[in-house]
């Protein structure tokens, strides 16, 4: 049996690690101080409190429309203007 863990095994191990264990590893592999790490985690927790939860109403926003060639049109659409119509929001990286 190989001594290396599979990707699934590493993910499983990570999910069972305590926050203190994660912090220790992060500090070992990064160049930030413990105080910087703690400040970063506090900031992330504060941001997480503002994130809409599954099942909650999405905040209203406006986006610019693209044409079939994915070029900007200058026209916009506001989420609230689509009330009662099916809407899908797709999040991802397109870089």
Explain the overall architecture.
- The protein has helices at about 5-15, 20-30, 35-50; strands at about 60-65, 70-80.
- It is α+β, with helices and mostly antiparallel strands.
- Strands 1-2 form a two-stranded antiparallel sheet.
Write the layout of secondary structure elements.
Blueprint: H1 7-16, H2 19-29, H3 34-49, E1 62-66, E2 72-78
Antiparallel strand pairs: 1-2
Point out poorly predicted stretches: none
**What is the H/E order?**
HHHEE
Rg over CA atoms: 21 Å
- Total DSSP E strands: 2
Strand content: 5-15%
Please list the strands of the largest sheet in the order they lie side by side: 1-2
Helical residues, percent: 25-40%
Cα end-to-end separation: 38 Å
Structural class: alpha+beta
General form: elongated
- The number of distinct helices, counting runs of at least 4 residues, comes to 3
The largest pleated sheet is described as: 2 strands, antiparallel
> What is the average of the pLDDT values?
85
């Amino acid at each position: 049996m190989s001594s290396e863990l599979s990707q699934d095994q590493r993910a499983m191990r990570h999910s069972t690690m305590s926050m203190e264990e994660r912090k220790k590893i992060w500090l070992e592999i990064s160049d930030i101080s413990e105080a910087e790490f703690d400040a970063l985690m506090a900031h992330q927790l504060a941001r997480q409190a503002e994130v809409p939860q599954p099942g909650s109403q999405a905040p209203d926003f406006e986006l610019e429309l693209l044409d079939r060639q994915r070029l900007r049109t200058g026209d916009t659409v506001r989420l609230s203007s689509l009330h009662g119509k099916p809407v899908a929001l797709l999040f991802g990286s397109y870089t």
